[in-house]
Each structure stands twice: as structure tokens, then as C-alpha cells.
Design the sequence.
């Protein structure tokens, strides 16, 4: 069925803007109407620009308007990236020819071409990341501005790499533009739904076990790395997690959870809940195409699916976005997925890294205990 | 060249017609709205409406269905997708199905009105939208209000007013309504219908009953005229704004109903004086506003208040917040003055 009730995931145009706007040194121009501009402009915590085209420009051509906007932005020491929206993409205008006198990046990722991940990957492919054999360090992958945890994730992985005396390579996509073509040879992931493909992937950083495995691999490829501080921290913090979870289980039954998120975060949440709290993972509703999972799992794109799954499984813990929270405020809820509307978030929170796991378990325990009171 | 939006240049930066129309249709409780376009357009608006709902302490989510136009539909036409979606929506227990198109549907030339004409045993109301091809956000609001009003029959007049075209995405929408009802209460006049905010199609059938329509602002004048022609209801073209404007509002409403207003006006003036006195501590301070709003209605009302307190308007003064829409009534001015004082304190 092509129709979708209350779609839950943004379009490719938003993904492309999220990728490009993460780079210092790029000015993003949304080539479309004000309606298309306002959504990414409210969602992404960076300035965006738009051409704000009008009906007469659709009929008589939008070249002049595009030039007008680009001329106003040139000379500000930033590369301009033009992101196409649906209507300009089907007008049949020769955009490349319009832009031939400008040094700009053009990303053709109209909304109808797919979801946020599609646009993110498309924009990255246009930037063409490449490895610089002389670059030291480890790249950090998966920092997509659309993910409200991306900034916290980057800070946490930078901290852990620092603990292990490993320099940071390129951060995809939250770095200087020049770094895109000078990536290090190896990469670690944060949110694996937004991978860059640059450098050899050593592994993710979601969950203590995965962090441990990934840092052992880092040690094997970076002879100067000393991962013992990270290993000691994992051991120490895991002990605290186990104690807190064990104490919870002395009084309460394990949570019965349904999880709605991008597959990467959802898989982390499910594994962590089962591992430390013996939780029953009733269902994972992945916003994107799910990978293989030991838990019941499906691709959930619309709000009516979310509502019926929550009714069907009757969980006492829901992980997801503020959409899921609105279904039933009586159940314990953890915000893991954008959008997280109706709450103020100022400090950087992470899902990745040791701090990410600590925050996650802490939030779950507090939410579950609050609901039992 | 402007590539970041200036709020006053509405033709280019005035937002999406679709969003404007959705801000109205999603307030009809027992309805569903179909958005004929790619999924992304619906998600963007769903997320925006969800956010503004939470800002107004409402957990209820709008009921939207996207026809999910794909690349294939864009090449071969999307009328089939719209027809299938409409058939499915009509089977639900709803009192109306609104159909809104998007700029992409208009560009490929889908005949939305023709698809909507088929009898589906539930009122199907196509609203002329089309993203930026349909005009601005305000056009979307007006078109949706008109489309709904056109389905309503006349009814006998009652001693009451309608509130027309509240800005449902506005952060302080409820506070503004409360202020208007406070002023109406002072004259002993009740509200019949908020057209359209959190009401059912059954409620909306009372649209013609009011003796006066109070428009949210002057941009709704075309809607006010249409309602006047259809139901014979006169209108006041905006919510009260400014000190003198609020007094004028009381007098205008009272005149329409033929009620005495001297006591209500006297009490309101006393309240205004009390509020101005509260802010004596910032008298003599120099302030300035966002230059983009220099000639706006907001600025005029703000200058009136500043003059009464003895605040100096000076380009080098402390930049204080000012919204595009002027604060509503006396209570709105009080909240504005608190924000000014906060800004002045922050600067000191």
C-alpha cells in the first residue's frame, strides 16, 4: 500500500541538508519553496539558506533567483552546497549548466527519492570522502545532525579516543570540509544508520561490549594506542550498571519493552535491556530497513502502525520519539529517536560510548521506577 | 538578496499553503486529512503540528494520511494513488475527509477535484493548496476556512460571537483566546464557536448563529467578508491590540450588540494603569526593536506603551523582543513588558 498514515521519518532532502550542514565551511542552500526550507531549518541546529522559489519562477524558470541567492552568499569563505527539493528536481531545468560559473556542490536528493538516510548517503557520495594515507588517528562515523544525540556522541568518542592516546581523524559529518578528503585509514561508528564508508570500519561504540571489541581492534591497528584506561573505565562502570540493575530486579519484574528507532540504536537498546535487566523485548519497530535481529522486528513507518503495535504488545516500557510518547503517557518512556518534541535539551547527551550506556540505563531505571511508584 | 527569511516578506517567505491549511483542518476532531504528495511533506507537517501541539500542552496527534507519491507516480500521474487513499479513508468512522494537495501534485497536474467528486458516503472537502504554488501559509488558512464554511447552512442568530481563524500554530494561542474572552465577559457576551480550533463538524454547524465574528487578524478579511455574505454576520477585523486598541475593541463589540460599555472601559483603563505602574522601574531606559519590524503594527503598539511608561525608543538602546503579531489585549502587553524588562536586566 503506497499511502502512509502520519509518516514518521523525514525525506531525503532533509538527510542531505543534515549531512552537508554538519561541515564547517559549507553553506547549505535549499533550492525550493519556503515550506521545504522551514522543516530542516527548525530541525537542524545550524543556519540554512533557501531560494524560496515562487510560482512564477516555476513557470518561467528559476535560474535568475538561484543566481541571486548564490551571488549574495559568495565571497564568505564558505563552499556553497545546493540541495534540490521535489519541484525543482522535476522541472527539467539544466541545473548543472545554470551553476557552471559557480564553484558549488550540487546534491540532487528530492524528497520523493527516499528517506533521510538516502539523502544523507547521496550528499556524502557527492562530497566523495577519501583516505589520506598520511593522516593519523581514527575517524568517527555516524554524526548526523538529524540525530539529537550526535553532538554528545562525538564528544564522548573524542574523549574515549583521547583516553586511549589515539588522535581523532575526520568526524563524519561534523568537521571542517577540508577533512573530508583527508580521512584516516580507520573508522569507528556511533550511529551505524549513518555510515560514510570512509576508512576501514573497526566497529561501533554502542554498548560496553561493542566498545571493548572496537577498542581492541584500534589497539591492533594503532601501535601507539594505550586502551587500558578505556578498558578499566568499562570494567568500573559496568560494575555500577550491574549493581543498579540488580537492585532494581530485587523489587521489580524486568521491563517488557517495545522499541521504535533507527535500527542501529534500536538494536543497542534491545541488547542492553536484555543483558542488564533481563528485559523482554516484545518488538522492534525500525524506522529504516532493519538488519538481522534476534528480537521480533519490522519496518515501521507510520504512526498508526506504532499505535496498533503498542496496543497489541501492551508494553510497560516504550522507547522512541515524542510521537510514541504521545500514544500513552502512563507507560515508562525513553526518548531515543527524533523528533523529541516538547522537551528542552541543551546539554550534549550521548547514546554511544561508555557515557551513552550509563545514561541509557540510568534513564531506563528512573523511568521504570517512576512508573511503579 | 535574502536567503534567510525575513518575516515581513510574505509572498516569498510566508510558508507553505499546505501547512496553513493543515493548521485548520487538523483542528476538526472527527476528521481525517489526506495530503496528496510525497511522504516527506506529510511527515514535515505532522512533526511540526506535533511540536506546536505539545507547546500548547496537547498530546493529541493530527490524523494525516499521505498518498506517498513515489518517483513512478510523478512520472505516470498520482490520481490513482489519491483515489485509493480516499477510498480507504472514507471507510473510517469520520465526519469529513479533507484533501490537500502539494506543490509536487500541482506540478504534475493531478486533477484533485475530479478524484474527490466520486461519491464516497462521507463529505470529501478538497482544499485548494499546492505548497508554494498555492500561495502563502495565510492563503492555506483562508482556503481551508472557506472550504469548511461553504458546507455549513444558515441558522437562527443567538447572543454570541464567533472567533475566526485563530493562529493554531502560535505559541500563546490559548492565552490570546483567554484574553479575548475576558474582554467579552466584561460585556456579558459569550463565545459560540472557535472556527476552527478543537471542534467537531457538529460544532461547526453553529457557525452561522453568531451575531458578530471576531477575526484573529486583518489577513482573514476575505474570510470575514465571505462569512458576512453567507450568514449576514458582521466582523471585527482583528483581536484587540495596544492600549487604545483594546479599549476600541470593547467599544466596537458593545456597539454591535447595543450594550453599554462605559463600566467595562473604565475598569480596563484602571487595569492598564496598574500594569504600566508595575513597570515604572524601567522608565527612562532606551530600547530598540528588530529593524525588520520598524514599520509594523506591532511596533506602533509597542511605541504607544513605551511612551506611556517613559521608555525611550533609540536605535542605540537595548534590543527588546517584539513579535510580528502585536500582543493581544492588555494581558498581552503585560507579558511583552516582562520580556522587555528581562532583556533590559540581561543587558545591565
Sequence:
Amino acid at each position: 500500500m503506497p499511502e502512509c498514515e502520519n509518516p514518521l521519518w523525514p525525506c531525503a532532502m532533509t538527510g542531505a541538508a543534515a549531512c552537508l550542514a554538519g561541515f564547517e565551511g559549507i553553506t547549505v542552500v535549499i533550492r525550493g519553496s519556503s515550506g521545504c526550507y522551514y522543516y530542516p531549518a527548525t530541525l537542524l541546529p545550524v543556519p540554512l539558506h533557501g531560494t524560496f522559489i515562487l510560482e512564477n519562477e516555476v513557470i518561467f524558470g528559476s535560474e535568475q533567483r538561484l543566481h541571486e541567492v548564490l551571488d549574495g552568499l559568495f565571497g564568505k569563505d564558505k563552499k556553497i552546497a545546493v540541495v534540490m527539493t521535489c519541484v525543482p528536481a522535476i522541472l527539467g531545468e539544466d541545473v548543472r549548466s545554470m551553476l557552471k560559473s559557480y564553484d558549488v556542490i550540487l546534491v540532487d536528493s528530492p524528497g520523493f527519492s527516499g528517506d533521510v538516510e538516502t539523502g544523507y548517503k547521496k550528499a556524502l557520495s557527492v562530497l566523495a570522502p577519501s583516505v589520506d594515507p598520511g593522516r593519523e588517528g581514527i575517524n568517527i562515523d555516524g554524526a548526523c545532525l538529524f540525530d539529537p544525540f550526535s553532538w554528545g556522541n562525538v564528544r564522548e568518542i573524542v574523549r574515549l579516543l583521547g583516553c586511549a592516546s589515539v588522535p581523532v581523524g575526520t568526524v563524519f559529518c561534523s568537521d571542517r570540509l577540508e577533512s573530508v578528503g583527508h580521512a584516516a585509514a580507520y573508522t569507528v561508528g556511533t550511529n551505524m544508520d549513518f555510515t560514510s564508508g570512509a576508512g576501514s570500519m573497526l566497529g561501533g561504540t554502542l554498548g560496553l561490549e561493542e566498545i571493548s571489541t572496537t577498542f581492541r581492534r584500534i589497539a591492533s591497528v594503532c601501535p601507539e594506542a594505550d586502551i587500558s584506561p578505556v578498558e578499566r573505565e568499562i570494567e568500573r562502570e559496568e560494575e555500577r550498571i550491574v549493581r543498579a540493575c540488580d537492585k532494581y530486579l530485587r523489587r521489580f519484574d524486568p521491563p517488557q519493552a517495545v522499541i521504535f528507532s533507527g535500527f542501529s540504536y534500536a538494536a543497542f537498546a534491545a541488547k542492553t535491556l536484555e543483558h542488564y535487566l533481563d528485559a523482554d523485548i516484545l518488538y522492534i519497530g525500525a524506522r529504516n530497513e532493519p538488519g538481522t535481529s534476534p528480537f521480533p522486528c519490522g519496518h515501521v513507518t507510520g504512526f498508526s502502525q506504532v499505535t496498533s503495535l503498542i496496543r497489541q504488545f501492551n508494553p510497560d516500557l516504550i522507547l522512541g520519539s515524542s510521537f510514541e510518547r504521545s500514544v500513552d503517557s502512563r507507560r515508562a518512556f525513553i526518548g531515543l529517536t527524533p523528533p523529541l518534541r516538547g522537551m528542552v535539551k541543551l546539554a550534549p547527551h550521548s547514546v554511544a560510548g561508555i557515557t551513552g550506556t550509563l545514561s541509557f540505563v540510568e534513564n531506563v531505571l528512573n523511568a521504570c521506577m517512576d512508573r511503579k511508584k | 538578496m535574502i536567503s534567510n527569511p525575513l518575516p515581513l516578506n510574505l509572498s516569498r517567505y510566508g510558508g507553505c499553503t499546505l501547512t496553513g491549511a493543515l493548521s485548520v483542518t487538523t483542528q476538526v476532531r472527527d476528521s481525517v486529512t489526506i495530503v496528496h504528495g510525497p511522504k516527506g511533506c506529510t511527515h514535515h507537517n505532522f512533526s511540526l503540528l506535533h511540536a506546536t501541539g505539545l507547546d500548547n500542552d496537547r498530546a493529541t496527534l493530527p490524523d494525516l494520511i499521505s498518498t506517498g507519491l513515489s518517483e513512478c507516480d510523478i512520472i505516470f500521474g498520482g490520481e490513482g494513488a489519491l483515489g485509493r487513499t480516499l477510498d480507504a479513508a472514507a471507510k473510517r468512522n469520520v465526519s469529513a475527509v479533507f484533501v490537500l494537495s502539494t506543490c509536487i501534485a500541482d506540478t504534475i497536474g493531478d486533477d484533485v477535484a475530479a478524484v474527490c467528486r466520486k461519491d464516497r458516503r462521507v463529505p470529501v472537502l478538497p482544499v485548494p493548496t499546492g505548497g508554494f504554488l498555492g500561495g502563502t501559509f495565510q492563503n492555506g488558512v483562508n482556503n481551508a476556512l472557506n472550504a469548511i464554511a461553504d458546507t455549513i447552512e444558515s441558522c437562527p442568530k443567538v447572543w454570541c460571537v464567533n472567533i475566526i481563524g485563530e493562529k493554531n500554530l502560535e505559541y500563546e494561542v490559548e492565552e490570546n483566546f483567554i484574553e479575548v474572552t475576558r474582554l467579552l465577559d466584561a460585556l456579558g457576551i459569550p463565545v459560540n464557536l472557535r472556527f476552527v480550533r478543537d471542534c467537531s463538524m457538529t460544532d461547526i454547524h453553529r457557525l452561522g448563529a453568531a451575531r458578530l465574528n471576531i477575526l484573529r487578524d486583518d489577513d482573514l478579511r476575505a474570510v470575514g467578508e465571505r462569512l458576512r455574505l453567507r450568514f449576514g454576520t458582521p466582523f471585527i477585523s482583528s483581536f484587540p491590540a495596544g492600549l487604545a486598541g483594546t479599549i476600541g475593541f470593547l467599544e466596537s463589540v458593545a456597539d454591535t450588540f447595543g450594550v453599554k460599555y462605559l463600566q467595562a472601559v473604565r475598569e480596563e483603563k484602571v487595569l492598564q494603569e496598574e500594569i504600566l505602574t508595575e513597570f515604572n522601574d524601567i522608565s527612562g531606559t532606551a530600547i530598540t526593536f528588530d529593524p525588520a519590524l520598524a514599520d509594523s503594527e506591532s511596533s506602533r503598539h509597542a511605541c504607544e506603551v513605551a511612551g506611556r511608561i517613559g521608555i525611550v525608543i533609540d536605535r542605540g538602546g537595548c534590543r527588546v523582543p517584539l513579535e510580528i503579531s502585536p500582543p493581544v489585549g492588555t494581558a498581552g502587553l503585560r507579558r511583552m513588558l516582562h520580556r522587555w524588562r528581562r532583556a533590559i536586566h540581561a543587558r545591565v
